[in-house]
Backbone:
């Protein structure tokens, strides 16, 4: 399992992110405050306050897959 902070600033960011996440079989969750939603659900993501910090939890035991996912979603990782 891996957790990274992400930012989804625009509607297009959310669309691209969900499209990318659905390509993988592992589970993705987005955590915002006390809410946890399926990161493969566009409606779930839009139910969150995207102006607040978001944590992406990737549930995979495969280190190679985690590395690939992190590389693919690099544009959404919050560098702060």
Residues:
């Amino acid at each position: 399992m891996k957790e990274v902070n992400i930012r989804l600033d625009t509607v297009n960011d959310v669309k691209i992110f969900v499209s990318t996440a659905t390509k993988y079989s592992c589970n993705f969750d987005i955590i915002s405050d006390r809410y946890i939603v399926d990161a493969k659900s566009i409606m779930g993501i839009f139910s969150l306050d995207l102006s607040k910090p978001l944590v992406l939890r990737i549930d995979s035991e495969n280190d190679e897959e985690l590395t690939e996912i992190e590389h693919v979603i690099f544009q959404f990782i919050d560098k702060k």
In short: The chain has one domain: 2-76.
